[in-house]
Design a protein that fits this description.
Length: 205
């Protein structure tokens, strides 16, 4: 089983919103709903490219600035998503588990450590570890390779359309969590990781 991190295991979306708001504000722009929709689920590097198109500037520098803001925001209060710690702890003793994230390595490690999830997730793939981040399947394929599992027999857990597309392209079964993951790339859906039906279903996984 391979989990996404941001918004799936860790409640970092408020952190991401705060970080993007700060970057936008420094340039006199408002981080509104349309801007959020254009950035959710993307890697930091991809986010830098989107912001450069929106208001100019160097994409790499914008990505670096966003990373610094994200690190500060995560350290300030990112918490595991409801049910995440319980689900990961239960599954880690029964099946191979990993994380495949679009986030940079430094942010992924900090987030999982901050949430107390690192102990159960020794195998992680970050956006820095692959040449092409989500929605390309590379990070999910890399995670499956490190786990020694067939993607076609592996469940991916995602909260964003970008991530669901990546996992689907890798040939995985996709479990969508939350409000954003419905559609042709998602095979099953639950509102949260602490959903009673999900716990029952995973007991037989």
């Amino acid at each position: 089983m391979v989990f996404d991190c941001d918004g799936t295991l860790m409640d970092t979306e408020p952190c991401a919103d705060a970080a993007r708001t700060a970057v936008f504000a420094r340039r006199g722009h408002v981080y509104d709903h349309a801007a959020r929709e254009s950035l959710v689920g993307l890697s930091v590097a991809q986010g830098g490219e989107v912001m450069a198109r929106l208001f100019g500037g160097n994409a790499a520098e914008l990505a670096g600035e966003l990373t610094e803001e994200l690190l500060a925001a995560v350290a300030d209060g990112a918490q595991p998503m409801p049910g995440a710690a319980d689900v990961v702890a239960r599954l880690a003793v029964r099946v191979p588990v990993a994380v495949a994230s679009n986030g940079p390595r430094v942010l992924l490690d900090k987030s999982l450590a901050h949430g107390g999830l690192s102990r159960w997730l020794p195998i992680t793939v970050s956006g820095d570890d692959v040449a092409t981040p989500k929605p390309h399947p590379a990070c999910y394929l890399a995670a499956c390779t490190q786990l020694g599992v067939d993607p076609g027999r592996t469940l991916a857990v995602e909260d964003s359309p970008v991530g669901a597309r990546a996992a689907h392209a890798a040939g995985m079964t996709v479990l969508g969590v939350g409000n954003l993951t419905r559609g042709p790339h998602v095979h099953a859906h639950v509102p949260t990781l602490d959903d009673a039906a999900l716990r029952h279903w995973l007991a037989g996984w």
